Please model this.
Amino acid sequence: MEKMPKWADVVLIPLISLLLAAGLSALVILAIGEDPTAAVKLMVDGALGSSYGWGYTLYYATNFMFTGLAVAVAAHAGLFNIGGEGQAMLGGLGVALICLFIPWPHWTLALLFATLGAGLFGAAWAAIPAYLQAKRGSHIVITTIMFNFIAAAVLNYVLVNVLKPPSSMDPASARFSDTIHLPTLHELLTPLGIAFSKSAPANVSLLVAIAACLAVWLLIWRTPLGFEIRAFGKSEAGARYAGISPVKITIITMMISGALAGMMAINNVMGEAERLVLNATEGAGFIGIAVALMGRNHPFGVFLAAILFGFLYQGGAELALWTNIPRELIVVIQALVILFTGALDNMVRIPLERIFLALRKESN
Amino acid sequence: MDFITLIQVLDSTVRLATPLLLACLAGLYSERAGIFDIGLEGKMLMAAFFSAAVASVTGNVWLGLLAGIAASMLLSGLHGLASITFRGNQLISGVAINFLAAGLTVLIAQDWFKQGGRTPSLLTEGRFGPLTFPFADSVRDVPMFGPIYSELLSGHSILVYLAFLAVPATWWILYRTRFGLRLRAVGENPAAVDTAGVSVIGLRFAAVAICGLLCGIAGAYLATALQAGFVKDMTAGRGFIALAALIFAKWRPWQAMGACLLFGLLQAVALRFQNIELGSVTIPVQVMDALPYILTVVILAGFVGKAIPPRSGGEPYVKER
Model:
């Protein structure tokens, strides 16, 4: 028998964890001598008070949807993919190669193939740790961490020695051509008569990210492969008994996960920077862990959590601009969210289960 | 490469290997007791900040060291609470600790010192100075032996010698004491330890506390000996290189020292030479940066000997089901 109704597991526990994280963050703000309510007001105004703020919030959210989905898909198979950062870096490399060396006639075609390229590079980067886990038994968490560092070195090498234009000093690729400029929300919404800020970076990749959320939902709950992934995640022995190949599921799941992380690059590399720079990912791969935990590994949860974190990132930037609170406050909040929704889950869950059991006894 | 350059590179190897070695031994205690710790990085960073902050305010480097150790052990306690008491996911707890340290250090540094997330530069009394061995100056000119004795062995801070002494100490504790036997047993088969009437929770908390202590010294070394003060993200992935060294050493103390010296050498060479020309082939500096991680993956994959972690690593112990 379930100890708790499902809604408590899906809504109540994340909510309580979030409140705990928010409460502690407020204490941190108080401790550095600032006013938490004023800070929250500034964040809401800065991130949601204008279409400019929304444009940034949604831009960040697009990144986090991709990386959050990547962590979530792997988690359904019981795998912890901590390598989203490296996979997103390699995805960026894929996008840059496709955008720089093929003269695309129109952005739609370019976007389609850039998405494929980003996914392919990300999947390939995840496939090696997956193979090593499935065939050689090396722990996927450790190998994906190592692959993050190796990816950074690869990217550094390629940018400095291969992609950097000879005339330029900073380690970045040349700019992509103007014909493959992705339409921003301003350009998409103006024909519909909706005014949207011109300078915000949110772009058409947001729609791709939402489509990815839908696709992951279909994959996990409406396809035989999704069933196999979930069965494998619940019990490897059980899955093996049902004729599911652990090697196949591990590798395929990690490749899907890596592809999703890699696809983030169409937003930050192709949509925003329009060239490949060092550290283009800015830690979004790691934020995916918090987003997936917060969203309970469900695509809709990931969608909401990504927007929440998008809000935090844009709001945090505004805070750093107008107050003495550095941007790192967001890193602290992110750590607290990971701590409470992930590591200290039982701290909230066990007392809550007791309450529900007690309530049930009374009603019987 | 002449002899003096060689000595200088080796000298810098020892300096760079020290924080790796301390963090690696820290991870060794924790993981041998069955608690995975990918939060070494965060604990070092926290210790680096608090040691530099306290050393710069009080001017006493020993108080700084204590503050660093306390900060690191506090995070260890959090890791223990999450992964031992509440039986949470040890890996996720480690990730959270890394972010917590990355954020809090800058936040507090900005609040206290208002220098853009760093501490003021430490003056001489706020740092661990070099220890000069007896006769180091008088034998300096003796060929071969002179430079080795006075440049390579002498002239490091006390924490360097402490780190290298911690290796035999760790070996002795793990393999020659009752505590060590139990510590190793609790990482392999906690149920057996429990049946024998020894507290699994107590042992694991002890291991996590030692881990915090050593990470604290590692962080303090970074900020008050290797460099003069704290700067944002100053650990720069050293916690993960230590983790790699731990796997490379297959969770054994002497081998951990070897691995840390090897990875320290790679850092020293990358620092000094950038791109290395070997005849017609150039080894780019990025290869040296990535080599510790690549070597670890190769070892993990079992192509060169197999790295088998402690059997109960990462699994919370449940007394009654």
